[in-house]
Amino acid sequence: MKDTVQRLVSPNLSEVVRDELIRLITQGTLQPGARLNEVHIAEQLGVSRGPVREAARELEGLGLTTSRPRQGFYVADFTAAQIVEIYEISPWIHQALVEDFATYSDAETCQTILLDVDTIETTSVPDFSRSLLQFRQRMLGHVHNRYLAELALSLFRRFYIVAALVRAEDGENRIKRIIGTQRLFWSALAARDHEKAIEIMKGDSRFWLQDIPPRFASANDIREERAQATSTQPRPAAHIARAPLISNGGADEFKQKPLPR
What we know:
Blueprint: H1 13-26, E1 35-36, H2 38-45, H3 49-61, E2 65-68, E3 72-75, H4 80-104, H5 107-116, H6 125-140, H7 146-165, H8 171-190, H9 194-231, H10 251-256
Helix pairs in contact: 1-3, 2-3, 4-7, 4-9, 5-8, 6-7, 8-9
């Protein structure tokens, strides 16, 4: 995965900027609590500030950024309690998806999605997370209720961010579990066993509720300790000569690497 920002050419720039900001967050270039410098982001992406601001506002609606009066937007720094809420809502979203597929789709459609599970990349955790989100986006293309599809996509994007922010040493086993759950879920839907599909996702959410929030609390503690240590150190004058693209890490990497033409 490249660390440089890609210059953007798209008829819907705000959506492309949004996806680029999500990529930068998941790869760690934009850290939790980092300020989004709209001017420099726009320069790096080759767009005006308007699409950047629109993208930041959309991410705020997704809970991925926060705004502060007269200061701009910041990457959200999730708490363990917020992670709990994300995984608590997951069974309800999946139950609604099951009901949508039960009402408007046939077994053949569910079988097609089941086969699509095998296209998810598993070579590395970052590639897997990105490919899993893409799989879910393709799946949502089959959902009849578009409001439900939007809600589900918002949830899946949060999963994507959370997976990037919490580092786990057992990545291979976690990938196998997620792939296995997807196969079980879509096998149940293809067999028209809707109750089983709902129970599969309820059990999956219970597992992640026990696993993710404690890891996230530890990650937040580490970030707070680093922030406190940094705040006690004097900052060199050269560091404040120009406002960086982001405020707490990764700025030099942004500015030094040339953008592809």
